[in-house]
Each structure stands twice: as structure tokens, then as C-alpha cells.
């Protein structure tokens, strides 16, 4: 009976830990996802390990082995995105000149979205890039959210990637590395990149193919 309740408790903990993958806005947070993946994997591994350990006469050892293995699997599942970078490519003055911006209204624009290489194999890494511009009359730092979604034939693949940046007015390049699952289906994938702020929203798509 004790082993039964232990297994149930571990499964409940696994479900709760998965809730940490999603922020209050409903978008994916990579840092929270990796941690939740590890905790959830460890909980599930512990439950299974306890059952295996009980069968061998040592439930405690089985639980620890299962937790270690489950934690590793959880980290793998939550680490599809990595190496995020955000850097300025045009100052506010240079960006204003490029847009012929005279200080009226707001400019929130995803100027370019890329996925490189354009042709990849399952398990390979794809560099997802975006150039964007934000200009406001106040010319003060703006907090914005970048969301990337990978879609195949219109359906979402895995969890969206979300990051929040706070920069002065200007143009910026933002990149993140996406690791294709080892069992990725061959075909064309669409990368939907969305920039959201209190001053406006912009979106642009890119694509890559899996052989």
C-alpha cells in the first residue's frame, strides 16, 4: 500500500512540475521548462524506479536510480532551445533615418526572419534569427516579448519559445538555436516569429526543410 501511494504522489508531482513550463501569459519559458522537465522526469523516474526496486527487494535504491534517469530525460526534453543572443545592429538615430521616422507614432517591426541552414536532418541544430526595430516618440527603453513557433503543416511542433528583451530604441538582431528532434518528420517547417510590446505587434515567417 505504501508503494502504491508513493507512485501516485510522484505522478501528481510530475503533473504539477509540468505546469512550470508555461508562463502566466500562456507562452513557453525555456528556463522554467528545462527545470520543470528535470523535476518532472525525476518524479516519474522515481515512481517507476520504486516499482522496479520493490520487485528486486530494494525500493529505495530503485527510486533513486529512477529519479536520476528521469531527471536526465527531463532535461533533454526541455532543452530544445539554447544559446539565445540579442544585440544592437542600428542605433536609435540610424534606425530613425532608415525608417524616415520623425517622432510621430510608433514603429514596431520584425524586419527580417531567418532559419539557417535551410535544409537540415533530424537531430541537427537550426539557428533562428530575427532583425527587428522599435521606435517611439519618448525614445526610452522598451520591454518587448519575442515568441517563436515551429509549425509543420500548420500544426505546432513542441512548445513555443518566448524571451523578453528590454532595449533602447533602435534595431536589434535576436538569435536562438533550435535542436530538431531525432524523429523529426521530413518536409517543410514554418518558423513564426512574433514581436509584442505595449507599442504594437509585428510578425514574420521563415522556413526550413527537413530531409
Description:
This protein is of the alpha+beta class and 211 residues long. It folds into 2 domains: 2-77, no CATH class; 81-210, Immunoglobulin-like. It has 4 helices and 10 strands; from the N terminus they run αααβαβββββββββ. The strands form 2 sheets. Strands 3, 5, 6, 7, 9 and 10 form a 6-stranded mixed sheet that branches. It has a 4-stranded antiparallel sheet with strand order 1-8-4-2. A hairpin with a 2-residue loop joins strand 9 and strand 10. It is elongated, with a radius of gyration of 22 Å. The N and C termini lie far apart (50 Å). The model is unreliable at 4-53 and 59-78 (pLDDT under 50).
Short structural summary:
This protein is α+β, with helices and mostly antiparallel strands. It is 34% helix and 40% strand.
Task: Describe the secondary-structure layout.
Layout (H helix, E strand, L loop, with lengths): L1 H17 L11 H27 L2 H19 L3 E10 L1 H8 L7 E10 L2 E2 L4 E11 L6 E11 L2 E2 L4 E7 L2 E10 L7 E11 L2 E11 L1
Parallel strand pairs: 3-10
Antiparallel strand pairs: 1-8, 2-4, 4-8, 5-6, 5-7, 5-9, 9-10
Helix pairs in contact: 1-2, 2-3
- Distance separating the two termini: 50 Å
Q: Kindly state the number of beta strands.
A: 10
Q: What class, by secondary structure content?
A: alpha+beta
Largest sheet: 6 strands, mixed
Specify Rg, calculated over alpha carbons: 22 Å
What number of structural domains do the residues give? Answer: 2
Taken in chain order, the helices and strands follow as: HHHEHEEEEEEEEE
CATH level 1 name of the largest domain: Mainly Beta
Beta-strand portion reads 35-45%
Oligomer designation? single chain
Amino acid at each position: 500500500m505504501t508503494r502504491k501511494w508513493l507512485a501516485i504522489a510522484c505522478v501528481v508531482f510530475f503533473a504539477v512540475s509540468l505546469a512550470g513550463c508555461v508562463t502566466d501569459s500562456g507562452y513557453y519559458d525555456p528556463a522554467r521548462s528545462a527545470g520543470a522537465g528535470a523535476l518532472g522526469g525525476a518524479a516519474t523516474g522515481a515512481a517507476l524506479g520504486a516499482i522496479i526496486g520493490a520487485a528486486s527487494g530494494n525500493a529505495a535504491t530503485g527510486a533513486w536510480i529512477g529519479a536520476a534517469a528521469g531527471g536526465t530525460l527531463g532535461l533533454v526534453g526541455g532543452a530544445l532551445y539554447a544559446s539565445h543572443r540579442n544585440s544592437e545592429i542600428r542605433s536609435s538615430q540610424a534606425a530613425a533615418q532608415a525608417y524616415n521616422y520623425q517622432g510621430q507614432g510608433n514603429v514596431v517591426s520584425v524586419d527580417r526572419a531567418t532559419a539557417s541552414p535551410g535544409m537540415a536532418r533530424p537531430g541537427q541544430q537550426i539557428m533562428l534569427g530575427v532583425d527587428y526595430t522599435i521606435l517611439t516618440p519618448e525614445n526610452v527603453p522598451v520591454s518587448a516579448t519575442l515568441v517563436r513557433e515551429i509549425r509543420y503543416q500548420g500544426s505546432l511542433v513542441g512548445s513555443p519559445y518566448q524571451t523578453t528583451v528590454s532595449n533602447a530604441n533602435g534595431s536589434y538582431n535576436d538569435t536562438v538555436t533550435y535542436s530538431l528532434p531525432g524523429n523529426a518528420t521530413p518536409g517543410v517547417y514554418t518558423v513564426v516569429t512574433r514581436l509584442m510590446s505595449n507599442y504594437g505587434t509585428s510578425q514574420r515567417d521563415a522556413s526550413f526543410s527537413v530531409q
